[in-house]
Amino acid sequence: MQFQQLAYFVAVAEARHFTRAAEAVHVSQPSLSQQIRALEKELGAPLFSRARGNIALTDAGEALLPLAVRILADADTARHEVLELAQLRSGRVRLGATPSLCTGLLPVVLRAFHDRHPGIRLLLEEGGSHDLVRELARGALDLALVVLPLPSPSPALTTVELFQEDLVAVSAVGADPPPTPLRIEDLRGQPMVMFRHGYDLRDLTLGACRAAGFEPTFTVEGGEMDAVLGFVRAGLGIGVVPSMVAARAGDGLRVTPLARPGLRRTVALAHRSDVAPPRAARVLQQVILSEAPPR
Question: Which of 43, 52, 105, 207 has the fewest CB atoms within 10 Å distance of its CB?
Fold first, then answer.
C-alpha cells in the first residue's frame, strides 16, 4: 500500500468521479484507475461500486476512508516537522530593524541566536519603521523590530510590544555641558545633529520641539546612527538618541537625561498576520523576547 494510492483513493471518494479526481491530483484518468485497481487487489476487496456510471463507496471503502485521511494527514505532519527541524540546521531568517536597534539591542540578540543555531543565516535589513512595514507586507521580511505607533497601521500585521525606552541627549565631552536634566525648551537655538528623513527618532525629536513652540537648529542633518554619533563626538551639535545606544556609544560623548516627562519610544516585534513565520523565525522571535529589556 502506497501513500500515492491512498491519495488517489481519497480523491475519488471526495469527487465521486474518476476523471474529476484525476484532474484534482494531476494525473491521467487511466493511471489513477490503474492505481485504484492495484490497491483493491492488495486489500482483497473492491473500494468503489461503479453501477451505471455512479461511483459509490463499498463497505470496504467506507471503512478505509477515515483511516486513509488520517494516514495522509499524519504523513504531511511528519514531513513538515522534519522540514522545520532541518530549517533550524540550515535555514535563514530575514530580519528588519531600525538602525538604532541594530546598534543597541541586536548584537546581544543575534549572538545568542547564532550560538544556539549556527547553521542558520541571518539576513538583516536596516530601515525606518515605515520602510520595514512595507517590506513585511510584500513578504521580503519574516520579522521586523519597529517603533510604535506605526506610521501607517496595517491590519495584516501582528505587533508584540517588547519594551519602552527613554531618549537622552548626547554631546561632546569637550563642549559646554548642557543643563541636567535637559528640558526640550533648552534645545531652542542650540546646534543639533539630526538623522535623515525616515528615522523614527527624527520624527520624535521634531515633534517634541514643535510642541514646545520652536523649530530646532541643525548644523548637520541626514546622517545614519553611527554618523550622527560621530558628528556629535566631533562637537558639531547635540543629538537625541535612545538610552541603549548612548550606553554603548563609547568614549567622547556626554549623556544627559531629559527632564520629565522626557521622550520615550515603544519598541515592538512585527510579523505578517496572514502567514505564519518559518520555524527559524519563530525561534528567533523567542530569543528576542527573552533578551529584550524588561517592560
Answer: 52
